Amino acid sequence: MAAKKRDYTSYIGRSLSDLLILGLLQEEEDLSGYLIIKKIRKISEGSIKFRAGTIYPRIEKLYDKGLLTKSVVDETSNGNDAVRQTSTYSLSKLGLQRLQEKSMEWYFLQHKIATILPPMEELQ
After folding, report:
1. I need a labelling partner for 73 at 20 to 30 A (CA). Which of 42, 60, 108, 113 fits?
2. β-bridge mates for residue 73, sequence order
């Protein structure tokens, strides 16, 4: 029996959401907060649906800790004179280090949890 497709966002705490942001930015640089939310949702096939109110503060904290770099771009739209600023983020060298450290911790924890749970074969 396959697992039902559902929203698992509530299972994800701050540390894991930070890890997902860092992991995504290792794969692709210069992403806005909006694109980070959209790409995580797409990659997880809708199983992780972060809201802007959750992700933007996490991104800013990662930036404040020096784990991300930020570029601010002025944009105009549709020939309009109104200028809007868009921030995009990339992984810093320190961010890459933290990603590697936290990924190792996550895989270790994931393995330990898997040893406690019944095997998948027994659940089907």
Report:
1. 42
2. 86
* Per-position pLDDT tens, the chain of length 124: 455 678 878 788 888 999 999 999 999 999 999 999 999 999 999 999 999 999 999 999 999 999 999 999 877 766 667 778 889 999 999 999 999 999 999 999 999 999 999 887 788 7
Distance from C-alpha of 40 to C-alpha of 48, rounded to nearest angstrom: 7
Q: Are 19 and 102 in contact (CB under 8 A)?
A: yes
CA neighbor of 52 nearest in space, from 65, 41, 67: 41
Structure tokens at 86: 């868009």
Taking each helix axis from N to C terminus, what angle separates 33-43 and 14-27, rounded to the nearest 10 degrees? 90
Expressed in angstroms, the distance from the first to the final Cα of the chain is: 5
- Helix (H) or strand (E) holding 108, with range, is helix 93-116
Best CA proximity match to 72, nearest among 86, 89, 93? 86
**How many residues are listed for the chain in this entry?**
124
